[in-house]
Amino acid sequence: MTKLRHLSAREVLKALGSFGFQIMTVRGSHAKLRRILPSGERQTLTVPIHKNIVPGTLHAVFRQACRYIPEADLKTWFFTEER
Question: Can you identify the CATH homologous superfamily of domain 2-77?
Fold first, then answer.
């Protein structure tokens, strides 16, 4: 069984940065991240900048990122194995 980790915005940005996403703009309490593929396709994500991201919001960021990154690769950053 897996459990959603407690992550800060810094940890989420680090995780998404490992997949090539870079911060494009910060407006208020949200950062817009983007990566451009070799084909020229732009992929954009929005992440809230909070010390602790609440579980529902964190799961929404995870689902949003799953549009561009394989879920199996993201799970190691967002979920922990519970025994």
Answer: Hypothetical protein. (3.30.920.30)
Structure tokens at 17: 């940065």
Residue 68: exposure state from Cβ atoms within 10 A (0-12, 13-18, ≥19): middle
Matching residue, tokens 């459990």: 3
Terminal CA-CA length for the chain? 7
pTM here is 0.89
Structure tokens at 31: 């950062």
Q: Where are the domains of the chain?
A: 2-77
Tokens representing residue 62 in the block: 């995870």
* Res. 1 pLDDT band, cuts 50 70 90: low
